[in-house]
Every structure is written in structure tokens, then in C-alpha cells.
Amino acid sequence: EKGGDRPIDKFFADKWKTASFGISGDRTEHLLYRLAHGNFDGLRPKAVVLLVGVNNLVAANHNEDQIIGGIEALVEELIAKLPDSEIILLGPLPSGNHPKDARRLSIAKIQKNIASLGEKEHVTYLDLAPAFTNTDGSLKADAYSIDKIHLQAKGYEIWAEALMPTLEKVME
Fold first, then answer.
1. Is 126:162 a contact under the CB 8 Å cutoff?
2. Which residues touch 158 (CB under 8 Å, ≥6 apart)?
3. DSSP letters along 50-91, please?
């Protein structure tokens, strides 16, 4: 919302018309269902930012291969439905405080395996993990809530700042 107080408003709404299709708890299969059932019908966005996967890991106990497959299917579906849009693929953000945390290792594997999707036409891949981690590999405490999954306001600012250079190039 233009003039809004949320980081997403401050970074994006004053520059571009924006829409968020994310729903708390979303997993890859939810997005695929909505895409298949009209969620993007009639839309022609210049860019789509895709950030998904952590809920598959922590809420649905999907394994890395299932999550990778879901993200790959989403990218293919977005390319088919929105052939003129640039897809900025982020994959899941780091979760779990320590670098050797099981969630962090799973997310690193997912990121490694989806990176090649950025070689597709109209797809840009970004791994934002460095923006969310300290030099020792721990998560930036002020970015996350206590569960080390959900972002706080500072985390959304970090996300927006890390995303902006790529988004600005796409939106030129």
C-alpha cells in the first residue's frame, strides 16, 4: 500500500503496482493448485517473486526432493502461464539458528538444486542466505522471530534490500 509502514510498502509500493498472493502456511502444492485453478488468469505482471518451500519442510515434513520437485513444477507452471513475466526465484530462506541445523542443511540442499532453474529464459535465481546470516553462519537474530522460521520487520527489510537490485533491473 502506497505510504504504508510495512517494509514491503516502503520498498515496493511507492515504485510499482504490487500484489501479494502469499498466504500464511503456503506450500508448493497450494500454489500449484491456485495456479491451475485461475489464480493468475488474466494477469500480466512484469515480475513474479517466488519464495516458497520452508512450510513444506517444517509443516508437512516433505523431504528435499519433494520440495525441489514442487518448486520446479511451480517455475514451469509460471513460465507457461506468464510467458512474458520475469520470475525471480528465491527458494526457502535459511531457517534454524546454527549452520549445521537439520533445517539449514535441507534448505541448503534445496537451494543448490534449484539454482539451475535460473538458467531458464525469464527466470532469475537468487540465494538470499548470505543476507540473513552472520559471518559465523548463525542467523541474524533481529531478522527472525523466536522460531527461527518467520521473519520480523527487520527480516522483511533485509529481504527487500537484498531483492531490490534484481527487481529494479527487471522493472526498468
1. yes
2. 131, 132, 140, 143
3. E---HHHHHTS---HHHHHHHHHHHHHHHHHH-TTSEEEE--
Do the Cβ atoms of 79 and 87 come closer than 8 Å? yes
Q: Which three cell numbers stand for residue 27?
A: 506450500
Task: Quote the pTM value.
Answer: 0.94
| Polymer length of the chain | 172
What distance in Å separates the CA atoms of residue 71 and residue 77, rounded to the nearest whole number? 10
Long-range contacts of 136-139 (CB under 8 A, 24+ apart): 136/99, 137/98, 137/99, 138/97, 138/98, 138/99, 139/94, 139/95, 139/96, 139/97
Round to whole Å and give the CA distance between 89 and 110.
12
Torsion 78-83-85-91 (CA) sign = positive
C-beta neighbour count of 54 within 10 angstroms: 22
Handedness of CA 140, 61, 91, 25 (dihedral sign): negative
CB-based contact 17:167 (threshold 8 Å):
no
Which residue has cell 512484469? 46
Instruction: Encode pLDDT of 116-136 as tens digits.
Output: 999 999 999 999 999 999 999
